[in-house]
Structure formats: structure tokens, C-alpha cells
Amino acid sequence: MEDVLDVYARPFDPAVPVVCMDEKPNQLLGHARDPIPAAPGCDHKEDSEYVRCGTCSIFVWVEPLAGRRRVVARRQRTRADWAAEVDHLLTIDYPDAAKIMLVMDNLNTHTLGSLYEAFEPAKARTLAQRLEIHHTPKHGSWGSTSPRSNSQP
Length: 153
What we know:
alpha/beta
């Protein structure tokens, strides 16, 4: 956890921005019956029954010190999807940044190997060289370094 805290404590540097990334699955829901719009003296009415319309994956990219964010919905969560988002981050969002300090969870698709699966080796290497990845701890594991947690029962 100390590693991530050290990254968060860095001063603002446009040449090496600190960007946080998270991703989550989301259900897409539709109305089973059309809602009744609000009118003077009557609230909007919506039935609690819904129609499931599939799922998507929401990617959120945030640079807190610059006040920037980008949110993207993709049909799925694959290594290629993550790699395409990283490509966008480095070539569109931050084309002039020397390096990006990327803070994210340690999900199985969030690896430099995903870049090599999605792109030609030369492009994957160029992208990977501009990333410095810092993973957030799993399941509150920041406490696992305390002396008590390392002792045997």
C-alpha cells in the first residue's frame, strides 16, 4: 500500500501524470413498461420491473491532480479491450507524456502481456515503455505486512 500512497503523494507533473484506472461490469437494463413522465403536481413514475439487455464493461481513467477523467463503455472485458484503452490513453489522451504512472487493480487482463497479445511486438513495447504500473492491494492486503499478520497461529 505504501507504494500506491507514495505515487499519490507525487507533485503534479504534466510530463509524468498520475492516472488511476478502474473497470467494472455493468448490467444494461430497459423498461418493461414505458415510464410516465413528470407533470405539474405528479412525479415521474417508473415500474420496478425491468428487461435485462445484456452487460457491458465500464472503464474509468482519472488524473486527479489535473481534474481529468474519461469514461468508456465497452461490450466486454478482454485483454484486447484493456490494451485498446491503454493505447488510447498513451496516444490520444497523453501523446506528449514521457511516462504515465498508472495506478490500477491487479486484474488478470491488466498486464503488459495484454499489449503483446493485442498489438505487434514493436508497438506493444513502445506502449509498455511509457507505463509505470502500480497495483492497488488485493482485499485490504495493505495490512498483511504488519507483524501480527505474519505470525503463525
